[in-house]
Amino acid sequence: MTTFDKAAYSHANAGAITEAFGRHIIRITAEQTGGRLGCFEAAVPAGEGPPPHIHEAEDEFFRVLSGTFGFWCNDDYVELETDGTICVPRGSVHRFQNIGSDEGRLMVVMTPGGFEGFFPAVAAERPVTPAEIDRIAARFHLRFVLEAQQAA
Q1: Computed over its alpha carbons, how large is the radius of gyration of the chain?
Q2: pTM > 0.85: yes or no
Q3: Domain total for the chain?
Q4: pLDDT of residue 147
Q5: Of 24, 32, 92, which Cα lies nearest the Cα of 57?
Q6: pLDDT value at position 151?
Q7: What is the rounded CA–CA span in Å between residue 46 and residue 145?
Q8: Is 45 within a domain?
């Protein structure tokens, strides 16, 4: 891992595009920031979003670049439009969904970095079963939570 003694940046329309659970553009990696953070964009089709999940090791910051999203975090729910922001603490059960009628875009910053590698790992390994997805997720401190577990 490199030290973080110079600015890490990503020019407009730059980044590594990954097609895994939708389109993700990896903008800044943990390698570029000495592990301190990772940053990616997510293009989310209308009505879509991940299932409830927990990041065991990272705090997560979202900025809505376009569209309208619903965010659930533990017992809270908030709707945010373009330019809205939300921070989700590590260890919380959370999810988001594009509740608009068009594709929406999110900028996601996670600290410490490293989770941004999840999407390229999924694209490279092409898991098919939930168990295969869970094995990859575990490497990135990610755990999916069943709806019944979330309500309990």
Answers
A1: 15
A2: yes
A3: 1
A4: 63
A5: 92
A6: 45
A7: 22
A8: yes
Per-residue pLDDT at 3? 85
Residue type, 90: R
Which residues form the domain of 115? 17-151
Q: Which residues contact 137 (CB under 8 A, 6 or more apart)?
A: 53, 118, 143, 144
Judge residue 128's burial from the number of C-beta atoms within 10 Å of its C-beta, 0-12 exposed, 13-18 middle, 19 or more buried: exposed
The answer to whether residue 125 sits within a structural domain is yes
Average pLDDT of adjacent 10-residue blocks, the chain of 152 residues:
88 94 96 97 97 97 98 97 98 98 98 97 95 96 76 44
Q: What are phi and psi of 16, to 5 degrees?
A: -90, 120
- Domain CATH code at residue 108: 2.60.120.10
- Given this model, what pLDDT does residue 150 score? 44
Q: Is residue 98 within 8 Å of residue 69, measured between CB atoms?
A: yes
Map tokens 């295969």 to a residue: 132
